[in-house]
Structures are given as C-alpha cells and as structure tokens.
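ok trying again, last paste got cut off:
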Amino acid sequence: MRILEAAKEAFTRHGAQASLDDIARQAGVGAGTLYRHFPSREELLKEVYRTEMGKLADAEHRLAAELPPAEALRAWLLLFVEAIAAKQVIAPALKELLGNPKEVFEASYVRLREALHSLVAGAVRSGDLRRDVEANDLLRALIGVAYVDAGPNWQASARRLVDLLIAGARR
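nice, full thing came through this time. structure:
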C-alpha cells in the first residue's frame, strides 16, 4: 500500500511527528483517504511497523521454497538485519506516541521467532547445520550486534556476523 511506504519513509526521516499531510501527498492520496484508513498517527505508525515485520516473517516461506535450507536461513538473517535497522528508526517514534509499544513489538516478535525456528529446523533436518544450532542463539547474536555497536557501520558488521554464524553452524 502506497500510504504505508510513504509513511515508513517519512517516519524514518522525521520521526513520530512526520507530517500526515505530506505522507498523504507522497502516497498520491488525499488526507481524507489517509485518515479513513488510519484514523490516528498512532494507528498509521503501528501498521507501518506491523507491515515491515510481517514482510520479514512472510519471507520465510518464499526463501525456503527458492533456496537450499542453509542459504534460505542466511538470506532471511540478512533481511532480519535490515528489519533491525528499520525497527531502530521506527521504535523510538512508537515509544514517543504510545509510551509502551510492548504489545505491538511482542506480536511481531512471535511471528519472527516462528519463521526463524522453521528455517533453522529445515537446515538442521537437511544436514546443512549442526543439530545443536538453536534459533534463539542466532537471534541473540544479531540483536546484540545491533545494540552493542549502534554506530553507522553496525549493519556491515551484522552482515559479516551472519556469514560467521552460518559458517560456524555448518556440519
């Protein structure tokens, strides 16, 4: 949906106080259309976050169908790095507007965790990864690198970490 893409871009650039009129204009719709779909700034921002995390969760099925199991896992983990970057921008805006967006984060986290568990299980079953590899370990490592070094190069470091994690997890 064009409104969500425009909103994501605006919230990324301007934070929680991004102009809703500018978002509507960027999406090529009138303000009334935006408000009909999203009656408040909070609802729009929550939907942007849910949509972004939903895209990542849904990528699991596509990647598992297109790639060998370990490569599907690697590709998904690289997408996860991008999602962490988006969350680092969107989360402060959600916190500013909602105070405690825990419910929004938790619902997405459940879907992401299920997707990752499925990919890891597939790679273990195929024999690509060691049997002792746990999805939560991979998750902790990537989230950790994002928050330990939130400098401008953390994403490059996280992408290298993905390759290290996959190499270390292979049989």
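cool. The longest helix spans residues 69-98. The chain is about 80% helix and 0% strand.
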